[in-house]
Amino acid sequence: MSADELGGSAGQPRRILLVAPNISRRMGGEGLKAMQIHLELRAMGHDVRQVTHARVYDEMRRDHPELAIDYLADGPVQVALNRLRLSPLLAVLNAWQLHRLATKVAAEFDPWVVHFTSPISPVLPYFRMRGSAVVIGPLNGNVAHPPAFRDREPRGKIIGQRILAPLQAVLGRLFRGKRDAVLLVAGGDRTVRALELGGCTREQMVPTLDCGIPDALIDRPRIMHTGINHRFVHLGRLVGYKACDLAIRAVAAADPETTLDVIGDGEERAGLEALVAQLGLGHRVRFVGWLPAGSALYDRLANYRGLVLPALAEANGIAFQEAMALGLPVVCVNWAGPQMLLSSNEAIMIAPAGVDAVIDDLATAMNRLACDGEAADAMAASAHARAIAMGFRWRDLLNRWQHAYHSAAARSAS
Q1: Angle at CA 123, nearest 5°, toward 206 and 205?
Q2: What is the mean pLDDT of residues 356-366?
Q3: What local confidence, expressed as pLDDT, does residue 80 receive?
Q4: Which residues, at least 6 apart from 242, have a Cβ–Cβ distance to it below 8 Å?
Q5: CATH topology for 216-389?
Q6: Where in the chain is the domain with CATH 3.40.50.2000?
Q7: Any idea where the Glycosyl transferase family domain is (predicted)?
Q8: In terms of Cα–Cα distance, which of 308, 342, 344, 337 is closest to 325?
Q9: Is residue 253 a contact partner of residue 357, using CB atoms and an 8 Å limit?
Q10: What's residue 12's pLDDT?
Q11: Does domain 15-212+393-413 correspond to CATH entry 3.40.50.2000?
Q12: Mean pLDDT of 144-171
């Protein structure tokens, strides 16, 4: 693809305005993805400017002072809503404030396209941005827990699923931002259905991967597996839907040599540590804490036989993509995001049949992988090949997004 097809050239780069609540290496997948999009577009020669929340100011000024960023600070109303835990009202207010700042910056910056890279939910509101070519996404959501795990689903999410159709109809009329934009859609039919309930059309939607992978990870030699290795890892935020407790209970049911390192942090950590103590697994399950993406983390992952991540409501899962690119065999639940990335040829996909069944199947999978280095290596090779074939590299993904940018510019012009 030529520089002109990309929308600019070395002498005359396109101006792109990015908007996201968070751009950060430390605030979960959406924040990390927003930052990677910014860095990659900039590396491609575009003139990139960012609108984001002031909560990331210190990190960005320390780690990326070269980036052009406009920050939105919380006012007294946001502080009050946060203290009262009125999350829906806070979400709408934050979206409106980001929209206002983005509109102000766009009037000065005059971008070719305005790309809202998050929030990724097909339900959360976006406001109309008149006079600008707007892209939103990748959008990915409308993920319910498997039927056998509905008792784990948060009450608010259950209510949201039940009222999705009328809620989307009302929100689609009140907040028309998504109707006026070109939409990058990564969540397949479940996300498309939610967007259509809000008045969006399939003609607006461009199918895409949810996320890319940095060159530094893609270009690493694949992990090679031989012999016996009983070491496994759980990687990601410690929140309820990641179901780290199932992985821990599976360790107790697996061969006694099996160990699990938990890399990540979050609100569930204290409860998970208590579970480890209760099961007497202190010598087999270790909490490593959060580690930044990069060569040190990737080197560490090469020591494990597999990634055990039985997430129950994962829209996509950057950890799965990273494991595939690295050549780290995946053990996961056959539901939602992992289904869009993997098949039984590239991972051990556990049927979400219930707590006891999943724990038993996780333990069986770990025992099998630990003792059969040849099978583990074949699975890793298949997953790595699939990652290359799907075009996980960020630059490849962003090249494909140029079609959405051009469509948005044409839509705005007409």
Answers
A1: 10
A2: 98
A3: 84
A4: 234, 236, 268, 309, 311, 312, 314
A5: Rossmann fold (3.40.50)
A6: 15-212+393-413, 216-389
A7: 232-380
A8: 342
A9: no
A10: 53
A11: yes
A12: 91
